[in-house]
Amino acid sequence: MKSISRRSFLGSATLAAPIISFAPTLLAKDKNDPNRFQIGIQEYTFHRWIGSGKLDHLDYPALAKDKLGITHIEYWNRPFKEKHTDKKYVGELVKRTTDEGMKNVLILVDAKNQLDSKDSKERTRAVDEHKGWVDCAAQLGCDAIRVNCRSGGNRDENLENAAKGLGSLCDYAKGTGVKIVIEPHGGNSQDPDWLLAAMKKINKPNAGLLPDFNNFGRYNRYDGVTKSLPYAPAVCAKALRFDDKGNEINTDFYKMIKIIYDSSYSGVISIEFEGHRVDPIEGSLKTKALIKKALKAAAV
Predict the structure, then answer these.
(1) Sign of CA dihedral 231, 291, 93, 48
(2) Counted domains in the chain
């Protein structure tokens, strides 16, 4: 679940209450249920290690389990290197995760073509481009794929285009168990009210949102997460830098986790560490410790 820094790396309306939300199983647990939340990890945390060859994509789940004690796994599409349609390759990931008692959560998909493009031909290409990722996610047993809606421009026009592109992809994903979720990741998608408008416009039970602690730009991040939670299959706990007390300097994790705890959400809270001052293992462990402390404080 990427921040604007990830976008750089890649080069690259107040509404009524939401009319749809996610499956009741995500919302069913009692607030004090010890199994209500699980801590996950997002593969983008290790993008520099993967890019340099220090970490192989197929070895990532084992690293998460052995070094972080985490068994809820999120992926990024780039390390698949176009092998996401290779059922044997994806099957190997299944062997290394599901068959080892781990849970595959979602795939972040940064595609060439934009689902919310004003060019209808590009939207069609985008839908086709994402279909393989839906199939890959289904084989892995993931709950969702994360897509971008960052073409920007006129809010209303962009909303119409997003509804067309994502609506078509949601129709394709129907019956697979894979949800299509938008992350605040540039353009109008950083505005939580635009995201809610998109959910109302798309009006599909398998359309959703992926709240990210650090991706709402000029909009209030706490308000953004609050509004997005009813549509969330997972939450991205983005961290970049910590102070001497172990607190993330950009986001008040105690405030954010309290918002999540007091909501009806239950499910995965995934670490995405994007800092440079410590390695991704240390950064992830710091983030994990902070999430656990914040959850404990929220329960008081």
Answers:
(1) positive
(2) 1
The answer to whether residue 18 sits within a structural domain is no
Instruction: With respect to residue 131, please indicate whether it lies within any of the assigned structural domains.
Output: yes
Flag whether 286 is in a domain. yes
Q: What is the CATH number of the domain that holds 291?
A: 3.20.20.150
Question: What does the alpha-carbon distance between residue 109 and residue 92 come to, in Å, rounded to a whole number?
Answer: 20
Report, as an integer, the average pLDDT of 192-198.
98
Rounded to whole angstroms, what are the CA distances from 189 to 58, 127, 135?
31, 18, 25
The lowest-confidence range among 18-22, 81-85, 91-95, 214-218 is: 18-22
Average pLDDT (101-127) is: 98
pTM: 0.90
Summarize pLDDT for 129-149 with one digit per residue, the tens: 999 999 999 999 999 999 999
